[in-house]
Amino acid sequence: MDETTKENFLKALTKVIPPDRLYTEDEISDDYGHDEINTIFHLPEFAVKPMTTKEVATVMQCANENNISVVVRGAGTGLVGGAIPTTGGLLLDLSGMNEIKQLDTDNLTLTVEPGALLTDIKQYTETRGFFYPPDPGEKTATIGGNISTNAGGMRAIKYGVTRDYVRGLTVVTALGNVMHLGGKFVKNSSGFDLKDMIIGSEGTLGVITEITLKIIIKPEVTMSLLVPFPNFKDAIKAVPNILRSGITPTAVEFFEQNVIKYWESFSQKIFPEDGHQAYLLLSFDGQKEAQIEDDYEKIAELCLEHGAEDVYVLDDVKQQEEIWSARGAFLEAIKDSTTEMDEVDIVVPRSEIVSFVQYVHQIATTENIRIPGFGHAGDGNLHFYVCRDDYDQKTWQEKLTKVFDALYQESKTLGGQVSGEHGIGIAKKVYLRKSLDEVTYTAMKKIKQVFDPNNILNPDKIL
Amino acid sequence: MDETTKENFLKALTKVIPPDRLYTEDEISDDYGHDEINTIFHLPEFAVKPMTTKEVATVMQCANENNISVVVRGAGTGLVGGAIPTTGGLLLDLSGMNEIKQLDTDNLTLTVEPGALLTDIKQYTETRGFFYPPDPGEKTATIGGNISTNAGGMRAIKYGVTRDYVRGLTVVTALGNVMHLGGKFVKNSSGFDLKDMIIGSEGTLGVITEITLKIIIKPEVTMSLLVPFPNFKDAIKAVPNILRSGITPTAVEFFEQNVIKYWESFSQKIFPEDGHQAYLLLSFDGQKEAQIEDDYEKIAELCLEHGAEDVYVLDDVKQQEEIWSARGAFLEAIKDSTTEMDEVDIVVPRSEIVSFVQYVHQIATTENIRIPGFGHAGDGNLHFYVCRDDYDQKTWQEKLTKVFDALYQESKTLGGQVSGEHGIGIAKKVYLRKSLDEVTYTAMKKIKQVFDPNNILNPDKIL
């Protein structure tokens, strides 16, 4: 960026954003340069913290006029570099737009600003008897970030993903116009579905500034089963049988013993009922205890019929919190076990999970590298972490590329896709390109041009 | 179309489609010229019945080369003229591509061709213990048509709409290329959501030639409640209270006495428990009788607390079939009560249903015209039918325009949208235009250009 452009843009920004929410040079926090996975670092030239849709719209107009690239950031908890300003330019920090604006108990909606944290939405709704079902592991993520990646989480098997809970969006376009998509109504067959195009577009098509979420009534009762199996195949093969029972668990998580070991050493705690090769962790929720008990007893029996070594019923709240917080900390635990890591978040048809996990084990052996992981066994979305450990930089990069190439190719072969819930960002671009045919890829490119003709919104992400 | 173009195109078509599936002039059935509502009639110049994705792709290539407009037709049960070839050209009749190709019991998916009828999908899945939840009134519609309008239906309140059950689509583009969108996997955050853009696009963005549907396990038990109220306001006002109970009925339908009268005279039957001003008809389903009983007893009590005059429990299959088939025939009954009619399918926030119904009553009085209707009270999607009765053509057109203008304006004022589930087609174009702001409308126009640069796919529909 030349100095004149820089000066002009800064002059324009100062007219819109007060000095205490406008940052340049040394005022720019290092946090703005990375996300949670920490493999890329790049700072923006400017950063602003807008507080209203109008401020965002005016900033976008300035950016477009001066051809400045704009990257939107929520809490920075992404894993694929989507919120890193890799081309410099302006960082739009929406963490200040975090108001929970309206609970509508007739329409069962919650209107929020994009910077509201998942944990705040949880607290706000649940203390009032309502429930926002999506449950990604990272509770300090913003709702705007969750919508931008179409975050999934652990309850997707019963409740669906973020997309299923977005009723309405206010979106500022790349040119600084404001679109209102959807609303408080439930059904809609009125023209093209722009709302779903914005969801999951990782800040490349528009800036989300207000959201109307669907909420439901809070389930009164929750309980969980921890089910050990002699090996990962038996654990995973039990899942379709569970889902064919007519009972839909809230979550069906899968993990192996190695991940438990990392967690124990990370947390300095002992995992309950340790010592088995593989586990399913299931939860159930509903309004009535008797109903939930019926359900989990039937599923427990089914698991034992399909090779489970035991079934541990977790029905008190504390026990459940412990085990789910352990599950929630697996990512951190693996991160803590190594010097550096990168992740795959592939999704395959449920019927292909065994093949994929088997393939990961095989690659880990042939490449002599650790690839621990866990996954949402109910929906075929698996998280594996390639660990650098003691490899030098060159060997690590070679091995990582080789492993990634192999895993994404295998996912494609098995009828899967690159990302189940973390998005593409900058880290998975090359694998998305390989996974899509020319016609589909070109259509995506052209859609980017429709929304962002000057390619200023998160310009080098996804495509 | 000039004669040379006509000849060239016909020559090209004969190379792809055998003569017994290619129709011109007198061979073209009158059925191809209208849909279920019967307010518009226009025949195509050519019609073909392709049997494979490849045939569709080649036909689209020929059409694009010769700049011939192409309209896709399933069973012709639409209500907004979406499948009528209003600009002539080619009609692509997909009713022959009606195979149910694969039931995948591990991934809980059903792969079908677009011409498969809802009734066939129902029969196929339910006899095998599975269930395709969306339940639009018109069971002889094709699944392709349902996807093209994002059909909703009566079970949307519990199970969602057609969009929620489409996992994968094979789509032939306007240029004759083939795209595969989605698949058998459950979650996806891999680039822009083209699949949802195709769903609900009414044949204007591509031709759907294969579909992978999500299915679930068939609920073992179904029962219904017929709940009379002293007036429509009390009936509708009970609904948010029902939905806040934590119990989600499968369906919550609303109707008034006048519609029952039309149905009785149409069907020559007596409606059970006739004689009340307004009704809610609810259904419940699940795996266990005791659970369903608990649920409906709680809801029955709630209804009585909120003004219901009585609660009739319909728990035997025959009773339920009778009442739901009556509900399913309301549209036909109203049609039978008049000389000609046109419909609105607006959707408003649930909290605004009373205001909207009140407004309809008021307009009917001031314009001295019958506007009977009914609706999905659980999701704010209302169907009202403006009846011509004995008005002459000129007065009818004037009154219809006046009533439509007023109703769509009111829906917009109440935060609603033009169509909840029937789509826009040609009949609602002007109201969609009025309901959208310039930025959103322009984005839709540009998206049309991305998918169909020569504007040959259903060219004068939606926008």
TrEMBL record, chains A, B:
Gene Ontology terms for molecular function: FAD binding; oxidoreductase activity
Record Pfam families: FAD-oxidase_C, FAD_binding_4
Protein's recorded name: Glycolate oxidase
Keyword tags: FAD, Flavoprotein, Oxidoreductase
Keyword Oxidoreductase in annotation: yes
Domain FAD-binding PCMH-type: from-to ranges: 40-218
Entry cofactors: FAD
Signal peptide: none
Flavoprotein is among the record's keywords: yes
